[in-house]
Each structure stands twice: as C-alpha cells, then as structure tokens.
TrEMBL record:
Protein name per UniProt: Mitochondrial ATP synthase subunit G protein
Cellular compartments annotated: Mitochondrion membrane
Highest taxon of source: Eukaryota
Gene Ontology BP terms: proton motive force-driven ATP synthesis
A Pfam family per the record: ATP-synt_G
Similarity comment text for this entry: Belongs to the ATPase g subunit family.
GO cellular component, one term: proton-transporting ATP synthase complex
Organism: Panicum miliaceum
GO molecular function terms noted in the UniProt entry: proton transmembrane transporter activity
Keyword vocabulary terms for this entry: ATP synthesis, CF(0), Hydrogen ion transport, Ion transport, Membrane, Mitochondrion, Transport
Length: 124
C-alpha cells in the first residue's frame, strides 16, 4: 500500500475519532465524574490541588523504604534460587525464561519507540 493512501486512510480514521469524541466526550466525562464522585474534593481550588499534590509526593517518598526492603527480599530469594539451581524444576526455569524474554521485548519496543517507530532508524 502506498504511503499517500495510508496517510489518507489514517487521516480519515483520525477525523472519525475526533467526531466521535466531540459527540460523546462530554457525556462520557460527566458519567465518569459521577461514578467517581467520592474522589472529588470540594471546593476545587488551586490551594487544595497543591496540598493534594504534596500529599501524593510525600506519601510516595515515605513508601521508598518499604519498596527497598521488598526489593532486597526478592533479591535474596533470587540469590537463594541461584545457589540451589540444581534443585530447579522446569516450571521455575520456564518462569525465569519468560521473564527474561519479556524484559528483552520491552527493551526492543522501547528502542523502536525511541527511534520514532521505525525498524531501521531511518525515516522515509
């Protein structure tokens, strides 16, 4: 398929999506806010938003020691598995292999995205 026809097709789909969003977007937004009313803070002021932002930041900051502890526990488990690798069964080896493949796939996808969704690095 030629590039100009693909571009026209993509443009038509984008226009269709824009029309759909314009027609149904407000109703969707209203229903979403109504469903999640318990999370809305009244009155919605700038000061309240800044306070919530600080609460989120410091809550995340306070969770770092717990995350570090969990990381070191998992690392100790991996070390223990490595020490007893002769006792590994096929299931554990398969899970480890799938995890490695998943990491490699995410790396490859990240590289492709970083190059602007091109496989060779050259844009046409």
């Amino acid at each position: 398929m030629a590039l100009p026809s693909r571009l026209a097709q993509l443009q038509a789909k984008a226009c269709e999506a824009t029309r759909f969003a314009a027609k149904h977007g407000c109703a969707y937004q209203r229903s979403l806010v109504e469903k999640n009313k318990k999370y809305v803070v009244e009155p919605p002021t700038i000061e309240k938003c800044q306070e919530l932002s600080k609460q989120l930041f410091y809550t995340r900051l306070a969770s770092i020691p717990g995350r570090c502890e969990a990381f070191w526990k998992e690392l100790d488990q991996v070390k223990q598995l490595w020490r007893n690798r002769k006792d590994l069964n096929v299931e554990h080896a398969g899970v480890a292999a799938l995890f490695g493949i998943e990491l490699y796939a995410w790396f490859c996808i990240g590289e492709i995205v970083g190059r602007g969704f091109t496989l060779t690095g050259y844009r046409v």
